[in-house]
Amino acid sequence: MDLAALYKEWASRLLGYTMSITRDRHLAEDALQNLFVKLATSGVDVKNHAVYLFRAARNEALSLSKRKGPQPLPLADILAPEESTGSQVDAAELTSALDRLPEEQSEVVILHIVEGLPFKEIAEITGCSLDTAASRYRYALEKLKEFLRPWT
Amino acid sequence: MDIEKSMRSLRWRDSAEPLERRVLAAARHARVEQRFWRWTWWGLAASVVVAVALNVSIRPGPNQSGARRVELASSPAFEAPGVGEFRERARMALSPPITPRKMLEVLP
Fold first, then answer.
1. A104 band by pLDDT with thresholds 50, 70 and 90
2. Would you call A94 and B10 a contact, using CB atoms and an 8 Å cutoff?
């Protein structure tokens, strides 16, 4: 397995995802490093990169997030809007609304929308059923609409 | 209001590029360390096997000589000329002397 190529392709996405879980830059970096150390020593043949890597990164982040800092990073510091997208809602309002969602719902929204993963893969990554992943997303969207109503 | 469309504009703020050297170095170091220990354990296991095998083959038999040597020596075909006679004289010399008591025990 070519670690350098794997890193170039996936590391930034995994770092963002682990930051969204740990809400701490240093813990997310540690989680990413642990993940690549395990990839280097385990010798597993990663068939479905996205599911395997996101799931492994999630496990690392969750195990490290037990020592989460006193001031967790807001999603506004982790996610930024792409330039000139002409989005209808202000990015700051959007990220602050995402922050108000329960963790399991915001995780599904991030994986589905930011990472573009289908619900089947999200279910495998988060360890829930396909229906649960889809319903978490639906509930999250309903809540987001409610939170963002004053700005639209 | 299309929230999904708005959210699709969001991207991860930080790049993992500055960490590349550190993370890959840690990963490679871990891999080298793992290989070192793997080969060390295999080497230790192989030396134990060799040591056990050697010990078994050189361990002396009940008459203080290796099993193979006894077998060869017991066959007259492997003996040099004169060795049999020498051995017989040695055996006689080393055997305990015949005492009158022993003679009485042997005699009918």
1. very high
2. yes
Sort out which chain A residues have CB atoms less than 8 A from B15's CB and list them: 12, 15
| The token pair that represents A1 in the structure block | 């397995």
> Considering only alpha carbons, which residue of chain A is nearest residue B5?
A87
Of the two residues A86 and A25, the one the predictor is more confident about is A25
Q: Please give the Cα distance from B91 to B77 (Å, whole number).
A: 20
Q: Do B16 and A141 touch (CB under 8 A)?
A: no
Token couple for A6: 């794997």
Strand partners, B12: A79
Is there a contact between A94 and B3 if contact means CB atoms under 8 Å apart? yes
Half-sphere exposure of B58 (CA within 13 A, CB side): 6
**C-beta atoms of B23 and A12 within 8 A:** no
CB of A92 within 8 Å of a chain B CB? The answer is no
Q: Which of A58-62, B44-48, B93-97 has the lowest mean pLDDT?
A: B93-97
| Average pLDDT of chain B, as a whole number | 77
A113: tokens are 């929308």
Q: Supply the pLDDT for residue A1.
A: 66
- Helix, strand, coil % in chain B, rounded to nearest 5: 70, 5, 25
pTM of the model: 0.71
